[in-house]
């Protein structure tokens, strides 16, 4: 556990220093959100699909133990080795031991937010093992030694010119090049050589099917398939909430996932893995890392329904204008803000406050997670547990007293209005963080209450 709470607002200031970047980040994610809207309107049964997905996941959360054991049994019957990891450390150690046993010191990895959550790359690097991320966005941020800023669009905070500079430095492309086709081709050549020379590949898991013991990995670049099919050993890392009961349920989730994420009808590659090919080893590492604690929190267990589409991030006005890195957590945005306090309440106590509670996240969520309600509930838990700063606590206690007493309410608002009329600069000045991007309107001569008392018939 951490000793102190991090500060989303302070971290956002770093991102906010570059105003044009904030504007296009905002606009780009809003454009993705609009693509999601068009795609969801394109199928009349959209709301039925959301309801079905939410109910299937509800069933999963209530039968997690049985479904996971069924999955393990069926996967083992298919020739897959199943490992269980209680936490990030165990996950990383299992993967390291699998590689060490075969004398492998270089591995490729397709997109897996779980490995970000477990800090796998850093762990393996400390053991002398090189990991190359093969998703294009992930590779870009890896070359820049940054974490992904979005769960679906890891490099969405970067411009073409940033990518050009990074590739010039690391891949030797022409200085100043910004043509996406040229840059993508350079990445393709670089990664192709990597695919052909690595003996181990790690993938994430989007859906694991208890009934068959198989699992599905969704990508748009085919990089998971390329790595898994060329490698001697395929390791899949899976948070235990990725389980679904039957293959027939897959259609519900596959139709929702990419429409919600990018507005596409389906990912370019939805790859089904069941068993290793002859001569290959296949391993699945099923990870808890705080998930069973979250499952036990009645108000927050629904957060485990998440299928990591990123729609709540694309729609969130705070995320769009503060950038993913300000959330200091592998999963950023609204969903990250309800998952992170479960992992470390003190460190992540700032995140549930990084929201306007407008509810847009809950409206777009394909599995109907009550995200903004959970953000609100986390605030209450954090206040009760003593993780809210003294200043905030005192001012809210004061506000509670004022709002509970009509006399105090009238007195304090009349005083504040008179003060603001005399000295408006007291509120509108650069020392007041609230007024940096807003202007308080002129205080009226009288309150609504006074006006009403005079004018009511
Ligand atoms: S919480 Fe819902 S909207 Fe957000 S990433 Fe998860 S599934 Fe998508």
Short characterization:
The chain is 51% helix and 10% strand. It has 457 residues and is of the alpha/beta class. Residues 260, 306-312, 335, 364-367, 369, 371 line the site of iron/sulfur cluster (SF4).
Description:
The protein is an alpha/beta fold and 457 residues long. Helices cover 51% and strands 10% of the residues. The protein contains 21 helices and ten strands. The strands form two sheets. The protein has a six-stranded parallel beta sheet with strand order 1-10-7-4-2-3, sandwiched between helices. Strand 5 and strand 6 form a beta hairpin. Helix 3 packs across helix 12, helix 16 runs parallel beside helix 18 and helix 19 packs across helix 20. The radius of gyration is 25 Å and the shape is globular. The model has no long low-confidence stretch (mean pLDDT 95). Bound molecules: iron/sulfur cluster (SF4). Iron/sulfur cluster binds next to helix 14.
């Amino acid at each position: 556990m951490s000793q102190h709470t991090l500060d989303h607002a302070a971290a956002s200031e770093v991102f906010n220093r570059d105003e044009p970047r904030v504007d296009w980040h905002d606009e780009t994610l809003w454009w993705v959100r609009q693509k999601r809207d068009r795609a969801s309107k394109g199928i009349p049964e959209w709301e039925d699909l959301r309801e079905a997905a939410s109910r299937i996941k509800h069933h999963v959360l209530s039968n997690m133990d049985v479904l996971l054991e069924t999955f393990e049994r069926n996967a083992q019957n298919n020739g897959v080795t199943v490992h269980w990891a209680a936490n990030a450390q165990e996950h990383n150690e299992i993967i390291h031991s699998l590689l060490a046993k075969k004398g492998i010191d270089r591995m490729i990895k397709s997109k897996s937010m779980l490995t970000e959550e477990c800090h796998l790359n850093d762990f393996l690097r400390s053991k002398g093992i090189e990991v190359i991320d093969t998703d294009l966005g992930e590779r870009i941020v890896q070359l820049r030694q940054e974490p992904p800023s979005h769960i679906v669009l890891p490099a969405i905070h970067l411009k073409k010119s940033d990518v050009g500079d990074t590739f010039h430095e690391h891949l030797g492309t022409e200085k100043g090049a910004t043509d996406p086709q040229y840059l993508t081709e350079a990445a393709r050549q670089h990664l192709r050589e990597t695919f052909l020379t690595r003996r181990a590949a790690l993938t994430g898991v989007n859906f694991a099917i208890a009934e068959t013991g198989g699992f599905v990995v969704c990508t748009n670049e085919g990089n998971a398939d390329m790595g898994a099919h060329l490698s001697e050993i395929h390791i899949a890392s899976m948070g235990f909430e990725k389980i679904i009961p039957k293959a027939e349920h897959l259609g519900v989730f596959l139709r929702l996932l990419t429409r919600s994420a990018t507005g596409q009808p389906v990912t370019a590659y939805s790859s089904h893995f069941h068993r290793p090919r002859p001569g290959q080893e296949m391993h699945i590492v099923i990870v808890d890392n705080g998930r069973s604690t979250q499952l036990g929190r009645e108000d927050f267990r629904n957060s485990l329904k998440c299928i990591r589409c990123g729609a709540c991030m694309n729609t969130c006005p705070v995320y769009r204008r503060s950038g993913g890195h300000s959330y200091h957590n592998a999963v950023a945005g609204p969903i990250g803000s309800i998952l992170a306090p479960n992992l470390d309440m003190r460190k992540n106590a700032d995140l549930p406050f990084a929201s306007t509670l407008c509810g847009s996240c809950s409206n777009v969520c394909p599995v109907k997670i009550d995200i903004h309600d959970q953000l609100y509930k986390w605030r209450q838990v954090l206040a009760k547990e003593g993780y809210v700063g003294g200043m905030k606590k005192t001012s809210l206690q004061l506000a509670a007293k004022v709002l509970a007493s009509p006399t105090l309410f009238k007195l304090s608002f009349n005083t504040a209005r008179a003060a603001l009329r005399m000295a408006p600069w007291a509120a509108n000045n650069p020392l007041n963080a609230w007024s940096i991007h807003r202007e308080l309107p002129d205080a009226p001569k009288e309150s609504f209450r006074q006006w009403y008392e005079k004018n009511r018939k």
